[in-house]
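Margin note from the TA: students keep mixing up input and output lines. Inputs are the sequences; the output is the structure of the whole complex. Example:
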Amino acid sequence: MKRYVSVAFRRLLTDWHKRKNPLLREVPFVMAVSDHGRMVITEICPEIARQGIAVGMTMADARALLPELKMVEEEKGLAQRLLEGLAGWCIRFSPELALCPPDGLIIDASGCAHLFGGEPAYLDHIRSRLGALGYDVRLGMADTIGTAWAVSRFGKENAIVPVGASVQALESLPPAALRLEPATLDRLRKLGLYRIGDFMAMPRASLQRRFGSSLLERLDQALGIREEAFIPVKQSVPYQERLHCLEPVRSAHAIAAALEELVGRICRRLEKEGMGLRTALFSGFRVDGKTVSLSIATTRPSRSEKHLLKLFEPKLSTLEPDLGIELFSLEAPIVEMQNATTGKLWEVFGKGDDAGLAELVDRIEEKIGRKTVLRYLPAEHHLPERSLKIAGAYEEKPQSPWRRDRTRPLYLLAKPERIEVTAPIPDYPPMNFRHGNILHKIVRADGPERIEQEWWLRDGLHRDYYCVEDESGRRYWLFRLGHYSESRKPVWYLHGYFP
Amino acid sequence: MGGTAKEEILARLRREILSLQGGQAFPAEEAWDIGLDLGKGVFPGNVFPCGVIHEFWCAAPEEAAASGGFITGITRVLMKKRGAVIWVGRDVFPGALSFFGVEPDRFLFVRTKRLQDTLWAIEEALRYEGLAAVVGEVEALSFKASRRLQLAVEQSGVTGFILLRSAAPPSVSASFARWRIRPLPGLLDEALPGVGYPCWHTELLKIRNGKPGAWKIGWKKEAFCLITEEPRLFELQAGNRKAQVG
């Protein structure tokens, strides 16, 4: 037996604007839409209704009654978007939801109400949760979508129609509760049929002749004689696979087998959808209630079983089964289109197997640590430590060419080391320098190459770099920090080794 | 007629022995021209051996820099055929590599901290056949580790360069060749000021199926050059400077 809850938002857009913009909570405002050059009111707050303003009035008339009235222009399609968002949020009440534009939702509540302590409690819960969000709703619960819709809009507050009592519930409601077209409603009113009960028992043939088939269809749907299609909102299914174990699993072999099975399943699904995963989380739910998990990441979307298993492999032994794992799950929180980036890698590196290099990088990073495999690109800075930047993506190409006009040491010390220097006269290369315990006698030198601090980035002294060679041919990159001056002896540093 | 047949057989047998010893048997037409002719019989088959492990003993940072330069010069040729080079090491400055005619953005640098991670990363990279070369810097290389690396390249055909940065002389290893490269005073065309082109005292300490030796090799205009005559002495220049100072 089916049960449906109809959620009717009284003022969907007004409530949403109030929720978004707290300033609007204090001032009287209406929603309006432009129609033939006039602004026509479409939604109003209840406080304003008492002052004689109604839906369908023009803005000019309303301002005559209430000069301080604010207006918000209705955005097209906003209501639909809001309903879709709310349907996603309402998934907590039931897994099956349908949109009911322009201002409602239908919840398939079959078998859900008892979880919340019965139908009245269920409706109270929905009402209060939506109320907490700032939405004023009317609810109706019945056997059919049609009756639920009718009582939520035309019945009492939180109307619950008992099972099999649709006829009694509908009898006293106006024909509009049947979701009829305005022309049909007009004709019914002209004939003096103000309640559904007035024509419910009339012969079907004459109803069909006078009002067309739509009236009968709506009536049958409301009474449950005819099935009404329920089109649930599609929830995106997360990339998650689960594997239950008959008995708690403890051995490394069994855990590896479980992982293999799950990776296989998720890869088949990714294959079908043309996607590849960027991160994956493998979790084991243990008998003692704890969860142990491992995560991996790839540099580009992958759905290769072999590769993903290889990434998990070094970590698998760290998963502690303790008393046993009874449920395994594998999730892929970040999934990307796979085809978008393939083939780019070797535009940089020349010909070769595209996936192979990316997989090698993944394996190394997974074992040694993230961000340990780096590629560098030239940056437009003069200071050697700033003249490189780490390439973000593997397909990124240099923006400016590599400079070959300036000699740079092959080994650059991360932190320049202090040296003691004997220099003959200012701005001449030094005669010798002492690094550690060794005295180097300088025979030849190039320089100085002055590199200024980039003042817009950092303050500091400039550096005068010299490439020097000692008597046995060993080459060093030295620099002096700042100028010579009377008061202060300049400090020299060793910054690198030339080949 | 008989003579050529005999030579062919000999060449074939040499190639077979080479492959048994862990080297790659290159057909003559595919020979890698490293641009370095060290003389007949130095390298097996007179071709710079690729697809093997070359070990470089670097007793000081200056020697490591010299070895690094020498290796980069070789990768320039290797990169023409295949894509990327992986360099497992800490302080290499990528901007310097362009001096040796390579594009530094085709190098991937792996920054490791522990020796075991370094060795693991080198081995893993060597197993992947899509690379031009793998350069690895280690502080120590046990026989077992060197054997693992040599076995990895025998399957993938990637050339591996291991910089052994330790002051102590290296122990026995399974590497195909062992080098030691020390800096020498630079090459200058005339007694011009400046440091000139880099020049190295290149020692081939051991090589399987080849002949060890020592050479003076320079790097000039993006190519190796073998120096046979004694380089010019620079006392003159040093004296000049002293005169200027005085």
